Amino acid sequence: MTRRTTRRITGSGPPGPALALALSCHPGPTVAMTLTLGAAAALTGRSAGQCLLVAATVATGQVTVGWVNDLVDVGRDRRAGRRDKPVARGLVSPRTVATATGCAVLLVVPLSLANGTASGSAHLAAVASAWSYNLLFKASALSFLPYAVSFGLLPAFLSYGGPGPGRHGGPPTVTMTALAGLLGVGIHVLNTLPDLAEDQANGVRHLPLRVAGRTGVRSLRRASVAGTASVALAMAVAGLRTGVRR
User: Fold this and answer.
1) Tens of pLDDT, residues 138-153
2) What is the CATH classification number for the domain harbouring 79?
3) Mind listing the pLDDT tens digit for each residue in 176-186?
4) pLDDT over 70 percentage in the chain
5) Is 217 contained in some domain?
6) Whether the Cβ atoms of residue 160 and residue 168 lie closer than 8 Å to each other
7) What Å distances lie between residue 241 and 55, 176, 227, 234, CA to CA?
8) Could you give the CA distance from residue 110 to residue 209 in angstroms, rounded to a whole number?
């Protein structure tokens, strides 16, 4: 979510703790991922109830990723004066965010496994990979890797999904898995572009920052927008022609 969006939401004054907690989960990406995966589940022929389960599973996993991000980055965000970060601004305490994260983890495990054992395992692995970005890879040249892994596991989450425990469906297509991983890399680059100067000042030398130092920010922006849009289009075509499952 952009800083401008946050200012619009909180323009009438500082948000209360509940709203600040909600804003700390990165609601923009959370809503986008929830709607996208819910719609994708519908396209695979899942029932309305199963689509709602997929949406609830994704939303719960995503809020943990957003909260962990803000907890890990609270010191850096305070030094940078980030007005769009409620934890860094002191609008919600790190302890409250950590408690909410723990509660969400307790929910996301059974929700994931309710989609089926194989499907749920893929989703939990995707969430764990996203956490690893915040905890390990964010400031390294391998910053793209958790995004590639997390997004690359989402076709398996959908293709193996079904009601109740056990194994349902089948493995995802290689094409859809590879394209999903590439989409994750593109989204990683796009996410980092607005904060390149801030990351440079804080020594967060992720892959996009290193590439931008050689190509320039404008060239990287053009390439990442074009590449991500192309991959998204290719995924749509592949999904309509062959589906997600082999």
Assistant:
1) 999 999 999 999 999 9
2) 1.10.600
3) 999 999 999 99
4) 95
5) yes
6) yes
7) 24, 11, 21, 11
8) 38
